[in-house]
């Protein structure tokens, strides 16, 4: 098992807590895996990309995208909006539009 596989496994085990159970877990974990060796850094978004780069083995079964950063803020806001009545984050449609706008304008 590579070190990256260990990190993914560890964070995946702590990810996805449900209310009232599994107090050792977090609501949502994020892991940003970046290769800074090239002139333009490579941000990995899923297990397929990590496997193609030889960072994780082909037999590694946990999907890295579940820990990815692309939907981290949206997921956290949705979890808390579902759990609590917080008026400042109630408009998830608006949050989705902001995130979509940001993705369209990425410079990747």
Largest sheet: 2 strands, antiparallel
Q: Which strand-content bin applies to the residues?
A: 5-15%
Determine the fraction of residues in helical runs and give it as a percent range.
25-40%
Low-pLDDT windows of residues: none
The first-to-last residue Cα distance is 30 Å
Mean pLDDT: 83
Please compute the radius of gyration using only Cα atoms: 16 Å
Order of helices and strands: HEEHHH
**Total of DSSP H or I helical runs spanning 4+ residues:** 4
Give the overall silhouette. Answer: flat
Which structural class do the helices and strands define? mainly alpha
Strand order of the largest sheet: 1-2
Number of β-strand runs: 2
Descriptive report:
The protein has 108 residues and is mainly alpha-helical. 40% of the residues lie in helices and 6% in strands. It is built from four helices and two strands, in the order H-E-E-H-H-H. Strands 1-2 form a two-stranded antiparallel sheet. It is flat.
